[in-house]
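Case study 2.
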Amino acid sequence: MVLSNNAADQRNVDLSLKLFVVLTRALQSIEKQVVRDIRKHHLNLTEFAVLELLFHKGSQPIQKIGQKVLLASSSITYVVDKLEQKKWLVRKASPDDRRVTLAQLTPDGNRLMEAIFPEHSQAINEIMDVLTADEKQNLIEQLKKLGYHAENM
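Prediction:
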């Protein structure tokens, strides 16, 4: 059966809407599992994201952390304050530019991430384990393509 242009166009629109719903639900389900895993360590998702960034990338300008973990700059100060109170990070002036304040893991923060990140990494792997390595690679490429397209519209 050959679809008319109008029918083919409508099918494409319907598939786009379904893809959006499926993608959103999948992300919500994945995020629910990730949050459950992170909460076991008495952290919320944002706190973990900041600690993970510093653990893997080293000291970061506080002003840039929000962009990297997709958090509003007004919220970053609150999260950094909480992590500083827990003695997991410190603020330091940048040696290159005294106007810039860096967030840096403390030894306690580093020990915490060394202890919990391998378990977290395994939890993520268990969520994604339903896909083969080739399916994961293909999905990564397709989602990047979709994301770049949406970003550049």
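The two ends are 34 Å apart (CA to CA).
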